[in-house]
Design goal:
This protein is of the alpha+beta class and 197 residues long. It has two domains: 2-96, Mannose-Binding Protein A, subunit A (Mannose-Binding Protein A, Chain A, Roll); 101-195, Mannose-Binding Protein A, subunit A (Mannose-Binding Protein A, Chain A, Roll), CATH 3.10.100. The protein is 20% helix and 28% strand. It contains four helices and twelve strands. The chain has helices at 17-26, 34-42, 115-124, 132-142, and strands at 2-6, 30-31, 51-52, 57-62, 77-83, 92-97, 102-106, 128-129, 150-151, 157-161, 174-179, 189-195. Strands 1, 2, 3, 4, 5 and 6 form a six-stranded mixed beta sheet that branches. Strand 3 and strand 4 (57-62) form a beta hairpin. The longest helix has 11 residues, at 132-142. It is globular, with a radius of gyration of 17 Å. The two termini are 21 Å apart.
Length: 197
């Protein structure tokens, strides 16, 4: 499977534990366990924002120590903030997905789309607009690679790069995050997902 960080449209550190669990479900995944995050860290996962894990702890994985992420002179590892109030404390979340039962694809369309047009274009193609968990699963488990920014169901715009190259993701294989643009902008394509019955 694949572990991925998630923060909502509101920006970082906006989810209590219960909202974090819900947000992962909405993205076709579950909240990650410590073991899942640890294994992802061992495979090179580096992320400087703290997120909830399934045991109610708040942690983050660092492979390249640097000043804003616990200090430059620290050892790599999974940084542990400990256990926080599940109702009042607010962080990001680490989600985990291994479930991939369908076809993930970039919809070839003659024009760029607004968010609403993107949703409709996938439906018209017999699919649904893809979720964040689905783009991460396609990227990690299938090596999906596409240098076109596309809308996803949560209103974010991302694209998956498995083969780093100039102008796409020069230094690393990653799911690149463009942001949460105004949904009325006709600047992006769309990623769709068609479930296998």
């Amino acid at each position: 499977g694949v572990v991925f960080p998630y923060s909502p449209r509101l920006g970082r550190y906006n989810l209590n534990f219960h909202e974090a669990q819900q947000v992962c479900l909405e993205q076709d995944s579950v909240i990650a366990s410590f073991d899942q995050l640890y294994n992802a860290w061992r495979s090179g996962f580096d992320w400087c924002n703290a997120g909830w894990l399934s045991d109610g702890s708040v942690q983050y994985p660092i492979t390249k120590p640097r000043e804003p992420c616990g200090g430059k002179n620290t050892v790599p590892g999974v940084r542990n903030y400990g256990f926080w109030d599940k109702d009042r404390s607010r962080y990001d979340v680490f989600c985990f997905t291994s479930n991939f039962n369908g076809r993930f694809y970039y919809l070839i369309h003659p024009t760029k789309l607004t968010y609403d047009e993107a949703v409709q274009a996938c439906l018209k193609d017999g699919a649904q607009i893809a979720k964040v968990g689905q783009i991460f699963a396609a990227w990690k488990l299938l090596g999906y690679d596409r240098c076109d920014a596309g809308w996803l169901a949560d209103g974010s715009v991302r694209y998956p790069i498995s083969r780093p190259r100039k102008r796409c993701s020069p230094n690393e294989a990653a799911v690149r995050f463009v942001g949460f643009p105004d949904k009325k902008h006709k600047l992006y394509g769309v990623y769709c997902f068609r479930a296998y019955n």
